[in-house]
Amino acid sequence: MHNLCQPKLTGVPILMKRFILAGLLVSPLCQATPMSTFDEVRAQYQSYRDPTRLSYLFNRCAALQLNVSALLTRKGEKQGAQDFESLAQHYMILSEANERDTDKKRGLKSKDTMKTVQRNVGIVSEVYSKRLKDNFAKRGEYIVGDTQLEAELAECNLPEVFRKKALAP
Prior knowledge:
With about 170 residues, the protein is mostly helical.
């Protein structure tokens, strides 16, 4: 059975898939859940040493970058949108590599890892999209004034620094 809060991408044109993954077509049945800060997730990683938390952080950055890309596309800022989309793709590749490495260490064979990453990014993207829409409804701004989103976007804009910080002991 298909989760109504998860985008179903079969039979959807490629351009529409991009917007679905960017979280612009969110089911009204989906409820946004509060998101832990990056520092909280990193602290959990240090406590549990769970390598999948790294993928989660990479997926969060990819989702946030895709949402910003979609906003810039709507504003007609093509180059900025492409830059954010490229950054999102970079984070998805980092997530895929982490997932493959995790599977290898566990003795599992990776299968369709990028599809899994894309699905996970789509789910997180919906949460960001709802938050951005709520912010705009309250303040007339999508990100400005939301200290957590401002901080996350600043961190995600520096992928190598973000990666090192995520991996730090």
